[in-house]
Specification:
Blueprint (H helix, E strand, L loop, with lengths): L1 H18 L6 E6 L10 E2 L17 E7 L6 E13 L5 E7 L9 E5 L4 E15 L2 E8 L6 H4 L2 E4 L11 E9 L2 E4 L3 H4 L9 E7 L5 H25 L6
Antiparallel strand pairs: 1-12, 2-9, 3-8, 3-10, 4-7, 4-9, 4-12, 5-6, 5-8, 10-11
Helix pairs in contact: 1-4
Length: about 240
């Protein structure tokens, strides 16, 4: 009977092992800042001097398709953007989409108002949002009307010529507005940027999955509980029906 009495504790231990395992935060994607802020390596958020990506007119968002390091889904803590704040008062927004196409329902978005002037790192807290390994993120200016102050005071940096992601990988460059994004992998470079990769960092932990040993422990505990119930039913004359 000691084994039977221990069964509930075994189940509880297995549940805590599955749900309560602490995982250290890690960097799943890192594309470093450009070596120099003023190396023709920024982008605004609307066309300038007649140039525009694809067939877009007016203000737009810009972003990359990326693949996070590791495998499987990821619990996203924060997205860090390396850029420049020139005194703009409008919030910057990061919106996430599953897979390689942002023209669908978003996974979530976070807004941050830039702080101060000069080179900054803006942190967008996603609070553990579970995202797939491959996703697309779009950076935009909330309320952008296409003016210089709205579009160019808040610059978003691209990486330098040697600044390919050191963790994870980057893919297509996207421009546009929700429901109407287009790929243009030549526009940024044509307007002076050294790469088509925004300078960003994704932080968090791999999404929790039960360890095999925890599943075995849980199974053992559940079997023990079933055995206890069977013994009690047998001793009381109760008939258990499936």
């Amino acid at each position: 009977m000691k084994t039977n009495r221990l069964a509930p504790f075994v189940v509880a231990a297995a549940i805590f092992a599955i749900l309560g395992t602490a995982r250290a935060s890690t960097i799943a994607y890192l594309s470093p800042q450009a070596p120099s802020l003023y190396s023709n390596n920024q982008i605004g958020f609307s066309p300038c001097c007649g140039d525009q990506p694809g067939s877009i007119g007016g203000a737009y968002g810009v972003g990359n398709t990326i693949t996070l390091a590791g495998s499987g889904s990821f619990s996203l803590g924060s997205v860090d953007l390396f850029g420049y704040a020139g005194g703009g008062s409008l919030p910057i927004e990061v919106t996430l989409y599953a897979g390689t196409n942002p023209d669908g329902a978003s996974l979530g978005s976070v807004e941050v108002t830039p702080t101060g002037n000069g080179s900054t790192t803006e942190v967008f807290n996603f609070g553990g949002l579970v995202v797939p390994q491959t996703l697309t993120y779009i950076v935009s200016i909330v309320g952008n009307n296409g003016s210089y102050d709205d579009s160019f005071v808040n610059w978003q940096q691209f990486t330098g010529i040697t600044g390919s992601p050191t963790i994870g990988t980057s893919g297509d460059m996207w421009y546009g507005a929700p429901g109407d994004y287009v790929v243009d992998n030549g526009y940024a470079i044509a307007t002076g940027a050294e790469t088509n990769t925004l300078a960003a960092q994704f932080n968090g932990t791999p999404a929790a999955t039960p360890e095999p040993s925890s599943l075995v422990l849980l199974g053992t505990g559940l079997f023990g509980l079933a055995f206890v119930a069977f013994r009690k039913a047998k001793s009381s004359g109760l008939v258990l029906h499936p």
